[in-house]
């Protein structure tokens, strides 16, 4: 209520209200000054309102007192329940945790005024989830209430939490939320085999490294806590097997380390230990986290292929050994209980040319062809053995045969030598050192000997000096040689080897006589140099040849210039009209002539457009045009001729002479009409050549020539 001291109660004072909510939330009685709320108030929406009031004169509307400001506070009541803004909650706690282990803290919010009464004082409690968990009434912290909760027994828990205001008293408002709690796994369980003995049956033909069986230990834990490692306990038969862990199924996979043989041992027994990889020290007191089981393996007898006595056979044979000679044998036997006979044969894929044969029963290998070490020094093929009782069971072995060398090739000069001797050579001078080579396989310490043949040893020209190290030197035996007398010498050299039987060959060396200077440097070995004039040096010969070449070039240039000058005179001279007369004496063969041109192209203008290659020729003689009766009208051909005529007239790249184009069809209305003399109705005397001037620049020369001829005609009177 508002009241002014100037208000005498006679109705001369008027009260006004302005500010927050004036007229919408609050109203004032203008006469009495009473303030009323005209709608419900919510403290959580707006806790206070600031208003201004004033007393004015009813008649003059002037303020009687200064404007005053006041605040209206909204008093709180408990009209809001606590709310869990982050719910529902998800939490986890390790299994086997002790009592009081922290799980989660929840928080509820009450919108009421915490400074007025107990409307906003919240108390927490558990409605569902006991006796496993507890909650602090004031802080909302959830903790475990039972010890040793086992995940393998129960993993998921749902706890219902209540928050109540007014300090939990009767009449307070409450809100609830759900907390889903999961027990996480710890390694609190060791692996255990479901049975103490595992029986496996394995064929003796199982391959090394293959899996022959699986065993499994059970661990109720989860994830890495359930990872198991398997090991074979050293003992009887354990060294033949190995065990690994399948990372997906956690099974123990038993693999074969060595081959099994039923005839040698029929059963194996060993122990396998399963243990956890990741141990938890808190549960060591429970006991060892491992278990042991026995594995018994029975080997099954299988029908096996024959077994060779060696993993590989190596044999030797001399080349050129007669066909059918036995060079060795292979042996295979059936080790099964009911022993079967064995048959042998050569794998044809490895011996395509059939150089060898094998006895199917005895396994002896013999030659089937003559062998040549120089062609093939080693043969590598496979022998297959199969059981007679079961031919499908086969085994294979590799056989290597080395071909031994027989001394059958004589030694020869290793490379062709170009030997020369100076005309001024002295006796005993070494002019060439030679070596030898043998196609045979030279044994250690192989020696070659060199000597002259018997017919050459008596000649006084050259000799051979054997150095005893598989080389020899060619030496001169006389003082000086003359090219004029003999240019070439042929020296037969005999070379022998030291193998058995001894092989020898005669090799001929060609020795050329050359002209040398005083130091022995070769200057010339050509035959032509012998016949050169005395006193004429090489420089002089080069100078003479150069002069001859220059004279030939001058002559060629002179002839070319003369021809060019003559051609220019014929093409450029215009004083004599006869020099510019071009005679056309080549008439087309008409429609029957199909060899000189393609007549079909003229009947198809599109083909002509695609092929614009000009066939320009230089005409020799001139044929005067004659009139011919116009042919049947054909606009396509006429347009085509006019188009080609226009292109030729304006083409600056065409040759400087007329272009002769042969057309298989003569159109109607052509300016030039017919150029053929066949069926001509007029004579040369009746022709008027003035129309040539209208044909364009291509026919300017013809127009000038025939115009001049007509002007000088003595039969005409001007």
UniProtKB/TrEMBL annotation:
Q: Which residues cross the membrane?
A: 530-561
Topology versus the membrane: Single-pass type I membrane protein
What biological process terms from GO does the record include? adherens junction organization; calcium-dependent cell-cell adhesion via plasma membrane cell adhesion molecules; cell migration; cell morphogenesis; cell-cell adhesion mediated by cadherin; cell-cell junction assembly; homophilic cell adhesion via plasma membrane adhesion molecules
UniProt KW keywords: Calcium, Cell adhesion, Cell membrane, Cleavage on pair of basic residues, Glycoprotein, Membrane, Metal-binding, Phosphoprotein, Repeat, Signal, Transmembrane, Transmembrane helix
What is the annotated localization of this protein?
Answer: Cell membrane
Residue span(s) of domain Cadherin:
4-84, 85-193, 194-308, 309-413, 413-531
- For the keyword Glycoprotein, the answer is yes
**What GO MF terms are annotated?**
beta-catenin binding; cadherin binding; calcium ion binding
| Cellular component, GO annotation | adherens junction; catenin complex
Among PANTHER family, the record links this protein to: CADHERIN-12 (PTHR24027:SF96), CADHERIN-23 (PTHR24027)
Briefly state the protein's biological role: Cadherins are calcium-dependent cell adhesion proteins. They preferentially interact with themselves in a homophilic manner in connecting cells; cadherins may thus contribute to the sorting of heterogeneous cell types.
Instruction: Output this protein's name.
Output: Cadherin-12
């Amino acid at each position: 209520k508002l009241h002014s001291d100037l208000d005498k109660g006679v109705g001369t004072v008027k009260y006004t209200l302005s500010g927050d909510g004036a007229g919408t939330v609050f109203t004032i009685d203008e006469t009495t000054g009473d303030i009323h709320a005209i709608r419900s108030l919510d403290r959580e929406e707006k806790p206070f309102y600031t208003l201004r009031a004033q007393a004015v004169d009813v008649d003059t509307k002037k303020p009687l007192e200064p404007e005053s400001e006041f605040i209206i506070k909204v008093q709180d009541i408990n009209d809001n329940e606590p709310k869990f803004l982050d719910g529902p909650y998800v939490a986890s706690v390790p299994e086997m945790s002790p009592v009081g282990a922290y799980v989660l803290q929840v928080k509820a919010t009450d919108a009421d005024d915490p400074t007025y009464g107990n409307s906003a004082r919240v108390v927490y409690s558990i409605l569902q989830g006991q006796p496993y968990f507890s909650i602090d009434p004031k802080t909302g912290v959830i903790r475990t209430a039972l010890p040793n909760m086992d995940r393998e027994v129960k993993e998921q828990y749902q706890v219902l939490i209540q928050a109540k205001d007014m300090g939990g008293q009767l009449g307070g408002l409450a809100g609830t939320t759900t907390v889903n709690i999961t027990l996480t796994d710890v390694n609190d369980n060791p692996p255990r085999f479901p049975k103490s003995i595992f029986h496996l049956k394995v064929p003796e033909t199982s391959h090394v490294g293959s899996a022959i069986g699986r065993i499994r230990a059970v661990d109720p834990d989860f994830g890495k806590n359930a990872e198991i490692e398997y090991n074979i306990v050293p003992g009887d038969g354990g060294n033949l097997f190995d065990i690994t862990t399948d990372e997906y199924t956690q099974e123990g996979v038993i693999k074969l380390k060595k081959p099994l043989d039923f005839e040698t041992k029929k059963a194996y027994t060993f122990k396998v230990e399963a243990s956890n990889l990741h141990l938890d020290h808190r549960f060591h007191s429970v006991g060892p986290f491992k278990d042991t089981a026995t594995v018994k393996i029975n080997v099954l007898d299988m029908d096996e292929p024959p077994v060779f006595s060696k993993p590989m056979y190596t044999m030797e044979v001399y080349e050129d050994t007669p066909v059918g000679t036995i060079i060795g044998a292979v042996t295979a036997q059936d080790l099964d209980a009911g022993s079967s006979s064995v048959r042998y044969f050569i794998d044809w894929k490895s011996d395509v040319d059939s150089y060898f044969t094998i006895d199917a029963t005895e396994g002896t290998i013999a030659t089937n062809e003559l062998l040549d070490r120089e062609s093939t020094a080693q043969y590598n093929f496979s022998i297959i053995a199969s059981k007679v009782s079961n031919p499908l069971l086969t085994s294979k072995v590799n056989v290597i045969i080395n071909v031994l060398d027989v001394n059958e090739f004589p030694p020869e000069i290793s490379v062709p030598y170009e030997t020369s001797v100076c005309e001024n050579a002295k006796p005993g001078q070494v002019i060439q050192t030679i070596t030898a080579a043998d196609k045979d396989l030279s044994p250690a310490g192989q020696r070659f000997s060199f000597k002259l043949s018997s017919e050459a040893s008596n000649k006084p020209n050259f000799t051979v000096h054997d150095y005893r190290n598989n080389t020899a030197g060619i030496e001169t035996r006389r003082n000086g040689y003359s090219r004029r007398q003999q240019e070439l010498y042929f020296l037969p050299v005999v070379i022998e080897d030291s193998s058995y039987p001894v092989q020898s060959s005669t090799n001929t060396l060609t020795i050329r006589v050359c002209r040398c200077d005083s130091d022995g440097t070769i200057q010339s070995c050509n035959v032509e140099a012998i016949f050169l004039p005395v006193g004429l040096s090489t420089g002089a010969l080069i100078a003479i040849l150069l002069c001859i070449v220059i004279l030939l070039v001058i002559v060629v240039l002179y002839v070319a210039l003369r021809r060019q000058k003559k051609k220019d005179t014929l093409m450029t001279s215009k004083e004599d009209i006869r020099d510019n007369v071009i005679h056309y004496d080549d008439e087309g063969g008409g429609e029957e002539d199909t060899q000189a041109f393609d007549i079909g192209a003229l009947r198809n203008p599109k083909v002509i457009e695609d092929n614009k290659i000009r066939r320009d020729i230089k005409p020799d003689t001139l044929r005067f045009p004659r009139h011919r009766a116009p042919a049947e009208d054909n606009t396509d051909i006429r347009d085509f001729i006019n188009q080609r005529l226009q292109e030729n007239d304006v083409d600056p790249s065409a040759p400087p002479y007329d272009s002769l184009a042969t057309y298989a069809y003569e159109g109607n209305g052509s300016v030039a009409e017919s150029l053929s003399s066949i069926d001509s109705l007029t004579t040369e005397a009746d022709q008027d050549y003035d129309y040539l001037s209208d044909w364009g620049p291509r026919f300017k020369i013809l127009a000038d020539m025939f115009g001049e001829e007509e002007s000088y005609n003595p039969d005409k009177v001007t």
